[in-house]
Please model this.
Amino acid sequence: MIIRGNHKVIVQGITGKQGTFWSERMMEYGTKIVGGVNPKKAGTEHIGVPVFGSAVDAMKGLDGGFDVSILFIPPMGAKAAALDAIEAGAKAVVCLTEHIPVQDVMYMMAAAKERGTQIIGPNTAGGVTPGECFTGFMPAFNDKIFRPGNVGIISRSGSLGTLMCLNVVQAGFGISAFVGIGGDPIIGTTTRDALEALDAFEKTEAVVMVGEIGGAMEEHAAEYAAKMNKPMAAFIAGGAAPPGKKMGHAGAIVMGDKGTYKSKADALSAAGVAILDTPMDVGPVLKERMG
Amino acid sequence: MNFEEHAGKPLLKAAGIPVPEGATATDADGAADIAGKLLADGGKVVVKAQVPTGKRGKAGGIKLAGSADEAKGVAAAILGMTIGEHTVGKVLVEQATPFTREFYAAVINDPETKGPKILFSTLGGMDVEEAAEQDPNAMRSLAVDIRKGPDRADVRAMLDGAGLDGLEDDVADVLMKLYDAYAANDAELMEINPLAVLEAGGLIALDCKFTMDDSALPRHEELAKTGTPDKLTGLEAKGKELDLKYIELEGDVGVIANGAGLTMTTMDVVRHHGGVPGNFLEIGGESYTKGTEALSLVLDNPKIKSLVINFCGAFARTDVMTEGILNAWDELKPTLPTFWSVHGTGDVEAVAMLKERLGVDPLPDMSAACKAAVDAAKNAGDA
Model:
């Protein structure tokens, strides 16, 4: 799902240093943060919103509950926090944490699937819907990068996704939504899920996908891209990476001939997606494709 | 983190899966001692190179011996051998086990189903790729709900028609225990290949490949000590000590960027302009305050002839990263031609700082910065 300005958001871990800093930025930008969670500070108020002992309590205690929870929680506590948000009935959980044990992540995924909760991440920098709201730690307030417009961006990486948005805006376009899906090998919202969400999002008229070597998500997204009407371009990072090495992201590893740049570029090309040699090529390609 | 066979097998044993008796040695005399004890009841021993890679048998790293002397001889030959990129420093000496069939069994993390998956094939004792070529349909699999663990009836049903000749229940038992070993040890792969059928009846694990999820290492501190850390170069080891993601590469253009995706892309764009990256070095995320350490790491590599610094701030503030690099700059006073591209959170402050302290402007985009660094490396090479 694309998180919108009218979605009610809570932050689990709101009282921590990063939780506080980014919650304030999000509020300033327009994200409708209605509460936070810290079991040790239940019943207090922090940066102008009530703090609850759990997401379940927040859902009961807040007038009208909440839609989305953002997790500013350390790796070993993330599973419990996510399960709390899922049990509370969150529509979406944005999981920013990197280095959550994968078996914990799979547990969160199984619980989320059963309850129909959309998990975004883990290991994502979050998302931006320019002019409406942002979730996570994105420089949404920088309008040289996140100027509102009609191009949707999907990225595993926050920094590279930000760079792609910058290039799109420098080329004279704007961003409808940035969806950061996260760099872990197992994530809740796949490239294809994000692509379907942007296809259904009325503000989006074209999609730029920023992929990475490793896994098969770009190949799966290509299947959907083949039948999508909105024009699409893709950049895949890691073409110069040596095989068998994890390139920073746990998911960015080439094993044998699986997860290679070529496999992804070929699948996307065959689906009619324009392949970008560098992120700077996005402007001319969009101009051509969006006519 | 990878675990060698000798470190993985005790985990299978703890889960109730039979493994041969044996012990490890780091020299030939030690191997002879172990062999002597194991051969007291007759039979043979097998001496196996302990390296975290496959194809040990084909490389000559697995040999049978019928006496302690013979075991000493084969151990001497195997120790010091190079298999893949690894030098053998340890052998496992085990009772040799006569068997009639070899199966494949594993539990993995599956990104497609976002859960654990049990795998089984009657084509064991060979590479998975080789087996897939021989019979693409031989591999059976079962997706598991990690909250409940596998249901034995489902595991048993997965084996129907696999041609196990009455061994279905025994195999199902092993698969249930293998799942326990996978779950208890935060494995991303727990594999038995081969799972052998003994001449005397019953099943035994003749090998074990175990890879632990790196993110779970903090909750397995004791076990992690028995694992085999990735082979690192001197600089990579230093990077790891500093808690920086640094990978040494063969080229001469140094790369510092924030975030894994942006760092990879910076390498790609260096390649695009005809250069060869000399390293991967990411200082984003939690390590964005480590600009100083990052610069000294790049400068420590004598092959590096130019440097591109590419920051695009989101969570990581570009001004904090830039300040870290500039502090190191004052200290180390490098002469390395360096090209900057700076955008995103904190960029106004970062650009002002660059101007004030180094007297330089960043290039308009990363492509220009990469191209300038590639050209500078070429010029330095020609000089």
Summary: The longest strand of chain B covers residues 99-110. Chain B has a mean pLDDT of 93. Residues 21-96 of chain B form a domain with the Dna Ligase; domain 1 fold (CATH 3.30.1490.20).
